[in-house]
């Protein structure tokens, strides 16, 4: 990468926006205009070759959180420690990471940031290495934070489908970001799948739109489908051009089975209500004895206790023998 500056002073100060990483070294050429005078300056980082960190990457998520991770240099001693510094813009101070991510050897291999503000300016990252006996090479990187932001899914995804005429209208709201409020800065990818198809045979209906609304004409009321939407930024906006996260699946269609279930549920509820109403009316206005009168049972002697029978018989016998009349007849001569 080549950058050319024209200066009038004997010193030159590079703006952060125009700078390139120096961890791999750099070559500076100073040339006096309209002469053959030039000077070449070469810069090479000091330290053990291969001791600088590798695979440095950062991602911003959930509006204001940022994670940065890296791996120790392949030639760095095992007890090398690393420290991350960053400068959000030229107007901000360079600050060190406050919450490091450590590996099993207690070595810093990442950093977590909170309350990150995304600006349209270039951010500078610097990772220094430290060792008691050796000099460790540094690593630096320049990036615009919006390019490393993982876009959240669109909000409030809704479907409105009709059978006659057949079609659906999908609506949603833009992803929630801290630095973008203009809805025109997004475009959306719509994914529609048939839920009942075999996974190996599923065909995705993909379409990209620039509005928060889409009319789906291939609607089949008898089939249940799944809708998902994700977003990315347009070129003229400070929004990541990579596709963001998918929204939660939204099911639509299959109204036939739905109405059958509703009808069966209504029938069951109606049956329960009629039964309860009949029970309440009977309890209020009817008597169980009127509806189900008792059946009279004949009473026989054999159903009475033996002692009661004996006492009754003795009483009857004694009553018959209590009165006796004697008549005397005399013959007259």
Strand arrangement within the widest β-sheet reads: 3-4-8-7
Mean of pLDDT: 82
Total count of strands: 17
Order of helices and strands: EEEEEEEEEEEEEEEEEHHH
- Secondary structure class reads alpha+beta
Identify the overall geometry.
Answer: elongated
What CATH architecture label of the domain at 155-253 applies? Sandwich
As residue ranges, the low-confidence spans are 313-318
Q: What's the CATH class of the domain at 155-253, please? A: Mainly Beta
CATH topology of the domain at 155-253: Immunoglobulin-like
Transmembrane segments: 258-281
Protein name: Fibronectin type-III domain-containing protein
Pfam family, one: IL6Ra-bind
Main location: membrane
Topology at a glance:
Layout (H helix, E strand, L loop, with lengths): L25 E6 L6 E6 L10 E8 L3 E7 L9 E7 L7 E2 L3 E3 L5 E6 L8 E9 L8 E6 L10 E9 L2 E8 L12 E9 L10 E5 L3 E4 L7 E10 L16 E4 L1 H31 L2 H4 L14 H15 L13
Antiparallel strand pairs: 1-2, 3-4, 4-8, 5-6, 5-9, 7-8, 9-10, 11-12, 12-15, 13-14, 13-16, 16-17
Could you explain how this protein is built, in words?
With 333 residues, the protein is α+β, with helices and mostly antiparallel strands. Among the domains are: 54-148, Sandwich (Immunoglobulin-like); 155-253, Immunoglobulin-like; 263-290. 15% of the residues lie in helices and 33% in strands. It has helices spanning 255-285, 288-291, 306-320, and strands at 26-31, 38-43, 54-61, 65-71, 81-87, 95-96, 100-102, 108-113, 122-130, 139-144, 155-163, 166-173, 186-194, 205-209, 213-216, 224-233, 250-253. Strands 3-4-8-7 form a four-stranded antiparallel sheet, with no helix packed on it. A four-stranded antiparallel sheet has the order 6-5-9-10, with no helix packed on it. It has a four-stranded antiparallel sheet with strand order 14-13-16-17, with no helix packed on it. Mean pLDDT is 82; it is low at 313-318.
């Amino acid at each position: 990468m080549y950058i050319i500056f024209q200066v009038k002073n004997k010193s030159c100060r590079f703006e952060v926006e125009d700078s390139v990483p120096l961890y791999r070294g750099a070559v500076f050429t100073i040339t006096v205009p309209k002469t053959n005078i030039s000077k070449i300056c070469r810069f090479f980082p000091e330290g053990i070759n291969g001791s600088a960190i590798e695979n440095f990457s950062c991602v911003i998520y959930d509006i204001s959180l940022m994670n940065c991770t890296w791996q120790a240099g392949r030639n760095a001693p095992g007890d090398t420690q690393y420290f991350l510094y960053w400068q959000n813009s030229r107007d901000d101070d360079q600050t060190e990471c406050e919450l490091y991510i450590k590996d099993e050897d207690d070595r810093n291999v990442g950093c977590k940031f909170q309350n990150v503000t995304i600006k349209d300016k270039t951010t500078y990252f610097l990772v220094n290495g430290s060792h008691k006996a050796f000099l460790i090479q540094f690593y630096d990187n320049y990036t615009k934070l919006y390019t490393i932001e993982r876009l959240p899914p669109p909000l409030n995804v809704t479907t409105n489908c009709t059978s006659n005429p057949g079609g659906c209208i999908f609506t949603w709201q833009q992803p929630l970001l801290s630095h973008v409020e203009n809805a025109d800065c997004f475009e959306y990818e719509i994914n529609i799948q048939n839920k009942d198809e075999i996974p190996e045979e599923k065909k995705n209906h993909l379409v990209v739109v620039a509005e928060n609304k889409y009319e789906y004409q291939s609607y089949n009321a008898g089939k249940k489908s799944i809708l998902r939407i994700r977003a990315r930024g347009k070129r003229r906006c400070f929004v990541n051009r990579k596709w963001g996260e998918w929204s939660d699946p939204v099911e639509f269609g299959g109204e036939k089975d739905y109405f059958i279930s509703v009808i069966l549920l209504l029938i069951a509820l109606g049956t329960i209500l009629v039964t309860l109403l009949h029970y309440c009316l009977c309890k209020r206005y009817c008597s169980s004895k009127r509806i189900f009168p008792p059946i009279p049972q004949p009473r026989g002697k054999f159903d009475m206790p033996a002692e009661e029978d004996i006492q009754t018989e003795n009483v009857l016998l004694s009553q018959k023998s209590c009165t006796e009349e004697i008549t005397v007849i005399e013959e007259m001569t």
